[in-house]
Amino acid sequence: MNAPAPVAIKKVFRRTHDPIWQLQIGVVAIMILQYFTNSSFLPYDKFIILTFEAIVLFMLAIVTSDGYHRVSRARRALGMGLITMVAAINIFSLIFLVEALLFGDVNSFDGHDLLLNGMTIYITNIFMFALLYWEMDGGGPDRRVASERQRDFLFPQIIHKEVAKPDWLPGFMDYLYLSTTNVTNFASADTIPISHRAKFLMMIQALVSVVAVVLVAARTIGVLQ
């Protein structure tokens, strides 16, 4: 007779409206981008950064293994800590890159290297704000399930209830799409920010993408010529 699978393993693969693996893929994508970022554009040793992020991501998976059926302060603290860490690193990377372009000896940088680091900052910006929107909207995924707080974003499935199930809730992929359209269109494609903090963060994200694309790309083209 086979022994039953451990309860912890069953919880990890439990089906929920917003499975934790989607968030994990987003964080892993950021970690891969950080790995390919030039060390001179990171605030600390990249391997220490990646190790610490991996530890926090693992801890987040443990406290969220049973889905978001209840409000968890531990999950909230770990989620916000991970997002804050990624945000701080990306901001420092952008500052270091802009400083090198504006005040450094641009001839000492390889044009392809500048372009690669500019793109990693731009793409990290997408995943970082997707994580932030996911954690911010309505107080986070667990509070959205409990309907304890007012929403920050109005999705089309909420407005047009006939296109989704009555109990529909946004997942990480919805916030990733929102983040991507905001940096490419400089406006969300179909989702409306309804709180002041949501509008402010979308404005900041658009400004960061402008700096990363316009300034970095323009200066990099000059180096490559």
- Assign a percent range to the helix content: 55-70%
What pattern of helices and strands is seen along the backbone? HHHHHHEHHEH
Q: Summarize model confidence as the mean pLDDT.
A: 81
Beta strand count: 2
Tell me the overall shape: globular
Largest sheet: 2 strands, antiparallel
Low-confidence parts: 1-5, 7-14
Radius of gyration: 19 Å
Question: What is the structural class?
Answer: mainly alpha
Strand fraction equals under 5%
Identify the quaternary structure here: single chain
Helix tally equals 9
What this model shows, in words?
There is one protein chain. With 225 residues, the chain is an all-alpha fold. It has one domain (12-224). It has helices at residues 7-12, 20-35, 46-63, 73-103, 111-136, 141-146, 156-159, 172-185, 196-224; strands spanning 153-154, 192-193. The protein has a two-stranded antiparallel sheet with strand order 1-2. The radius of gyration is 19 Å and the shape is globular. It starts with 6 loop residues before the first helix and ends with a helix.
